[in-house]
Amino acid sequence: MNTNQAYRLKGLGRLCLVFCWLTATVPAQPKMAIGPTQTPARTLQSLVDEAAKATLGKFADKKLEEKQLSFTLIDLRDPQRPVTASFRGNERVYPASVVKLFFLAATHQWLEDKKIEDTPELRRALKDMIVDSSNEATQYIVDVLSQSPGGFELPPQEMKEWQHRRDAVNRYFSSLGYTNINTNQKTFCEDAYGREKVSRGPNGENRNKLTTDATARLLMEIASGKSVTSQRSALMMDLLTRDYTGTSSDADSQAVGFTGIALAGMKGARLWSKAGWTSTTRHDVAYVELPDGGKFVLATFTSDHARNREIIPTVARLVIDGLKTVK
Asked: Which residues contact 99 (CB under 8 A, 6 or more apart)?
């Protein structure tokens, strides 16, 4: 054995000694117990995506298409940290009577700013607009807000000035950061005439339009006491209260004909809502408090399925069941 070979053997010996010392001093790691796999909590958006897929599948035989459904969910279980998710939530849809929620909030802002007078007639109109969804009451409220009453056609310059006044509610919500909506038309049982018809545009391009994102946001702000003032938010909530436990012969009852269907038989839940429906649309925006402490706002819009009373409560049921799995 030459000298170099001897040095190499001594070096290997020292490495072996160090390795043995390390393995002797490092404690053995405990083995991981093998048990059932835990399903990770869903996000709110995954819940919404799954609810949309399930709803579209359930009503596929009724030819419900993606473009005919949109909804926005706001989880308010932690009111200081609301979480929002939506399915086509920024799509502009003709809102029918749901737009009355925006006229309600605007009226309270005008009252707070003392732009208009608080009269018994105004209060009567607000109640009828929200509780009974009266179109005639809504027409009165829009006139009060905008000072742009309907009537015969106007010359172009006068019509331009009239339209600027009529856009007052749009300017208000734009100042609050609302986008992609139009809230400058009255609601009618039949049709608009004169300057009201002109205002809509030749092809209805200036009709009211809302998104479920904007609609859910407004009801969340009202329910959270953040719309105008906490006191005025409470007054708005009083008008939006619905008794889903009652009965009605009216299939379009705001209490038992829309989101309230999903709460039937559920003791202890509470409902506030504003619905809207026409021959082609069926919508609802609801704030719900569940017996288990769950709180959420759900705005659901459907088009071309106005006679189908089950689409909106189907979405609501899927949300109620799925919210328990969202952390």
From this structure: 183, 185, 187, 208, 210, 276
Query: What DSSP line would sit under 209-228, residue for residue?
Result: BB-HHHHHHHHHHHHTT-SS
Spatial separation of the C-alpha atoms in residues 187 and 210, rounded to whole Å: 14
Check: CB of residue 311 under 8 Å from CB of residue 319.
no
Q: Which of 43, 84, 75, 38 is nearest to 327 (CA)?
A: 43
Domain boundaries, the chain: 42-93+211-327, 94-210
Helix and strand numbers (H, E) in the chain are 11, 6
pLDDT in tens, the chain (327 residues): 444 444 444 444 444 443 343 344 444 444 433 344 444 568 999 999 999 999 999 999 999 999 999 999 999 999 999 999 999 999 999 999 999 999 999 999 999 999 999 999 999 999 999 999 999 999 999 999 999 999 999 999 999 999 999 999 999 999 999 999 999 999 999 999 999 999 999 999 999 999 999 999 999 999 999 999 999 999 999 999 999 998 888 878 999 999 999 999 899 999 999 999 999 999 999 999 999 999 999 999 999 999 999 999 999 999 999 999 998
Cross-strand partners of 223: none
CATH of domain 42-93+211-327: 3.30.450
- The DSSP string of 58-90 is HTGGGT--GGGEEEEEEE-SSTTS-EEEEESTT
